[in-house]
Amino acid sequence: MTITGEFIAFMGLALVAIIGGVLLLNLTKVVHMVVALIFTFVSIAGIYVLLSAEFVAAVQILIYSGAITIIMLFGIMLTKHDDEGETTTGRGRKVLLFLGILGFAAAVYIGIYDFNVVQVPTDLHVDNTMKIGEALYSKWVIPFELTSVLLLVALVGAIVLAKKDEKESDKE
Length: 172
What we know:
mainly alpha; Four Helix Bundle (Hemerythrin (Met), subunit A); 77% helix; flat
C-alpha cells in the first residue's frame, strides 16, 4: 500500500473527528463540548471533500457546524441545568468502557480489512450538485417540503416552551 497525500489527509481528518468525539463525551463545560463538536463536524466535511462530494461538505459546514451548533447553544442557555447532581464513575467502569471501545475498534478494523470494494463508475463526482438538485426537486420534493414544515413546527414548539419557562420563573 502506497501512502499518498490523500491517505494522509484522510487519516488526519479522521483523527481530528475521533478526538473531537472523545472530547465531546469527556469534557464537562458545555461550551467546550460544543467546540469539540464543531471540530468533529468540520473534519467530517473535510472527509466529504476528499470523497469529491463538495455539496455535501458545504451542507455539512452550513447546517451542522453552523445552525445545529447555534441551536444547541441556545437550547442550553434557555434551559435550567444544575451540575450539583453529577456523580463520578468508578475506575472499574472506565476500564470496562475502554475495553468496549477497543473491542468495537477491533470489530470495525476486521470488518473493513476483509471488505471487498465493488468498482463504481469514476464519473460520480461530475455535476454531483446538479444531480442532487434534480433528485431533490423532482423525485423527493414532497418529503423535502414536509421536513421543512416539521422543522418549523419544532422551532415554534421550542419558542412556546421557552416562553412557558420564562412565565413560570416570573411567578416565583
